[in-house]
Amino acid sequence: MRSIISIALLLAGLAIAPLHAKAHDLMTLDELLGAFGWDFDSTQIRAEQHGDGLYVLFGLGGNIAVSIGDDGVLIVDDQFPQLIPKIQAKIAELGGGAVDFAINTHWHFDHADGNLALGPQGTWLVAQANSRRMMADARIINLVAMQYEQQAYPEDARPVITFDETMQFHFNGEQIDLVHFGPAHTTGDAAVIFRGRNAVHLGDVFNNSGYPFIDVDNGGDLDGMIHFCAAALAEIDNDATVIPGHGPVTDSQALAEYIHMLESVRAAIVDLMAEGADLEAVLQAKPTAPFDAAFGDPSGFVNRAYTSLRKAGG
Q: What pairs with residue 194 in β-bridges?
């Protein structure tokens, strides 16, 4: 059972907190690490192969896709700078060299803080344009159970290549499509589709270790998450490899079931809101009950889903 506790519990939320954090409530990364027992020194990087030259690395934070071939090394997400030496060692073990390109599926710390090490080393950093914009300033991430202040990234850790809706790489013998289907988990999400390997990395738009986190305070949106997942599903084959932001690598069927969960919970919350239910009443009504056995503690997800729908007018 890979480090589901490390990030799934964090992003699912363990208690209900105010929608807007006060300055004295904000946690630093060191405090966050201590609260959840994260230990960079003891973390090991594990690799799975999912096609010729395509691997997924598991460590601490978001799953990393790695393409290794004649053109070099391209990765999707990069976890934390403290883990970059271990990540690079694992890539070398798999036959790769220095990281030529690092694509950020979004701007959150557990997927993009590795930029702080890779950027100064000369890696070309790539992201959707909104993610670069979000990295330019300090941002409060309301995780429901706690609030974390992600610091602004220095210029050499911000993406130097950005796109608005789509872009393409032709790298290591295949076409790699980067697609932004609109706000979802954040305002700057990217789906990365490896056409030749029949695989897609969806970042935290698709969480396969529990209920998802919607960063509503920074542009995330439940309806957008449903749309993003459905649009991505339409882009891939039935037998495609689906790489989530967290949790085990899976398939198209699991993504379809995830969309069904999101749509069902949305419909239940909307019905409750139409009856005048506030957040506390929605939580008490347990709109996620049919899915809790599979997805775990729903409180943080319901909080953020309700807040998203309330912002959108239901």
A: 176, 199
Report CA-CA distances (Å) from 74 to 192, 247, 305: 11, 21, 34
Reported as half-sphere exposure (CB side, CA atoms, 13 A), residue 192 has a value of: 30
Closest to 168 in 3D by CA, of 144, 195, 207: 195
What does the DSSP assignment read for 65-116? EEEEETTEEEEE----GGGHHHHHHHHHHTT--S--EEEESS--HHHHTTHH
Element (H, E) at 166: strand 166-171
What tokens does 168 get?
Answer: 């393409």
pLDDT tens for the chain, residues 1 to 314: 334 334 444 444 333 333 333 444 788 888 887 877 888 999 999 999 999 999 999 999 999 999 999 999 999 999 999 999 999 999 999 999 999 999 999 999 999 999 999 999 999 999 999 999 999 999 999 989 889 999 999 999 999 999 999 999 999 999 999 999 999 999 999 999 999 999 999 999 999 999 999 999 999 999 999 999 999 999 999 999 999 999 999 999 999 999 999 999 999 999 999 999 999 999 999 999 999 999 999 999 999 999 999 998 75
Task: Kindly state the DSSP code that residue 246 receives in the 8-state scheme.
Answer: B
Angle 104-68-244 (CA atoms, 0-180°, nearest 5)?
40
H or E stretch at 292: helix 292-295
DSSP 222-237: HHHHHHHHHHHHHHS-
Conformational region of residue 119, where left means phi above 0, alpha means psi within -120 to 50, and beta covers everything else = alpha
